[in-house]
Design goal:
322 residues, 2% strand, two-stranded antiparallel ribbon, mainly alpha
Length: 322
């Protein structure tokens, strides 16, 4: 057997990164659905803060073991990232509460064109016609199989607008910071996770009380719910890390486009575990269109001219590891 080429090794690592993200993301959705629907733990923002506490613990252990090297991220960049990330989390939770599920799904789909706009404006990216059409096909397919009732009001629209733009900016910033400061996924996560954990645990209980009229400190904790909370936090470590790995290796747009494969998997698993009432020709057709669009996007964006930067180079800042 011929030795693997550098391109083959990169393709294998890329595929492993995507599968890692898909498995952990789908896993945490299933666990959180059981935690909230079955055990009534509806404190989404506080739970996210717990996720980042667990992630901070993981990065601290890895740093002590020597797997994460010392690095530097300027405080202004850290604060910008945490601001975008926390507005994304809060915005998504509020948008889901104030909007119909259909409009919430449309808002999530709009992250792709917003991410494209950020790359065009800031990175001077040019997309080929096939790449643009493949993105449209993905949007069409996911829209067909997920968007149902659509209703929106003024405050719901504002929440969705904030959620979409903050999420797109947060994901763009992951790629930007890794390139600018030559940070690995572990290093960047080590800088951002403690700040997100502290801020979300500070704000989370109040926001969750505002959204649910329930207090997290008065929740009836039992063995089963604590096990699911622990499982959710454990999987979240992989979800957070895999997101940074994927966006660092690719771009926010690619992460969004191919990330909708998770939506398809969640629908399939939902039908398998929770009943087949929603499984119909309409949904299956949407899944097929979406998957076809993802395959087309992968081929189109990887071809010469499919997605290229126009005479632009990002200045790289070497981090001080002393």
């Amino acid at each position: 057997m011929a030795p693997a080429t550098k391109a083959d090794k990169k393709a294998a690592v890329d595929a492993a990164a995507w599968m890692f993200n898909v498995v952990t993301s789908v896993g945490i959705i299933i666990v959180n659905k059981a935690l909230m629907a079955t055990y009534g733990f509806s404190f989404a923002t506080t739970l996210t803060g717990m996720h980042f506490i667990t992630t901070t613990l993981m990065t601290t252990i890895l740093r002590c073991l020597g797997y994460i090297q010392a690095s530097h991220l300027p405080l202004p960049d850290l604060l910008k990232f945490v601001l975008f990330a926390n507005f994304s989390i809060v915005g998504m939770n509020v948008s889901l509460m104030w909007n119909s599920v259909g409009f919430y799904q449309i808002a999530k789909l709009s992250m792709i064109p917003v991410s494209c706009l950020l790359e065009v404006v800031f990175d001077k990216i040019r997309y080929s016609r096939d790449t643009k059409l493949s993105i449209c096909l993905v949007l069409l397919g996911v829209g067909v199989c997920t968007v149902t009732d659509v209703s929106v009001n003024a405050k719901g629209f504002i929440a969705a607008f904030i959620a979409v733009w903050s999420t797109a900016l947060q994901q763009y910033y992951v790629h930007y910071l890794q390139r600018k400061y030559s940070l690995s996924s572990f290093n960047l996560l080590g800088h951002t996770a403690p700040a997100q954990a502290a801020s979300l645990l500070l704000v989370g209980p109040f926001l969750d009380y505002f959204l649910t009229n329930k207090r997290v400190d008065r929740y009836d904790y039992n063995i089963a719910s604590v096990i699911f909370i622990f499982l959710s936090c454990s999987i979240a470590v992989g979800t957070n890390l895999s997101q940074f790995i994927c966006i660092g290796r690719f771009t926010a747009v690619s992460f969004q486009v191919l990330g909708h494969m998770k939506t398809i998997f969640v629908l399939i698993l939902g039908f398998f575990f929770f009943g087949k009432e929603g499984l119909n020709l309409h949904v299956v057709l949407g899944m097929i269109i979406a998957v076809a669009g993802m395959i087309w996007y992968g081929n189109a964006s990887s071809k010469p001219g499919g997605k290229e930067r126009r005479s632009y180079s990002l200045p790289t800042v070497k981090t001080d590891t002393r």
